[in-house]
Structure formats: structure tokens, C-alpha cells
Design goal:
Elements (H helix, E strand, L loop, with lengths): L5 E3 L2 E3 L5 E3 L1 H5 L5 H17 L7 H30 L13
Antiparallel strand pairs: 1-2, 2-3
Length: 99
């Protein structure tokens, strides 16, 4: 069964030719102060809870980027699973590191 929605970059084309932006594309233009706060909290927790693990500020920053990357991978996996379920299929195995 084919999906009635055809995705092209950040838009979806419906039967009849009408195109709509994806929710992610719409939200991409909105400021996300919650993400800035989340990143600051991650840095503070890393520095305070594991002080011996980090030798300098840059290593704390890198730890936040690693955590952010993992969180993004989980979000992408969830989106992919929902797209598959929406068209009535069963999702395949979840990628490594997305747990």
C-alpha cells in the first residue's frame, strides 16, 4: 500500500497536487529557547556531576553535543517509525545507539 503523502525534502504532496510543509519545517523557523535551556542544563550537569571527567570547557561542550546528537537520533527514529505505522506497515529494527 502506497502512502497518499509523498515527501520531498520538507514538504508533503497530497493527491491532487497540493503541497504542505512538514511540521518539522514549520517548527524550524520558530525560536526554541527550551533547547538552549536544555543544552545549558546538560553542560551544568556534566560539569558538576562528573568534574573529574572533564579537563576543560571544550570537553564539557563536546559532551553536550554528543548527548544532543543522540537525542536527535532518537527523535528521527520516532518520526521514521510513525511514518511507517501511518501507512499500515510494521517498522523494522531500531538502529544501534537509538535506545
Amino acid at each position: 500500500m502506497m502512502s497518499p503523502l509523498l515527501r520531498h525534502h520538507s514538504t508533503y504532496a497530497l493527491p491532487g497536487g497540493r503541497c504542505y510543509p512538514s511540521v518539522t519545517a514549520i517548527l524550524g523557523v520558530i525560536a526554541k529557547p527550551g533547547l538552549v535551556r536544555w543544552a545549558a542544563r546538560q553542560a551544568a550537569e556534566a560539569a558538576m556531576c562528573r568534574p573529574g571527567e572533564f579537563g576543560d570547557v571544550e570537553s564539557v561542550v563536546e559532551a553536550v553535543f554528543r548527548r544532543s546528537s543522540r537525542a536527535g537520533a532518537v527523535g528521527t527514529a520516532v518520526h521514521d517509525i510513525l511514518k511507517v505505522l501511518r501507512v499500515g506497515h510494521r517498522p523494522g529494527p531500531i538502529g544501534k545507539g537509538v535506545r
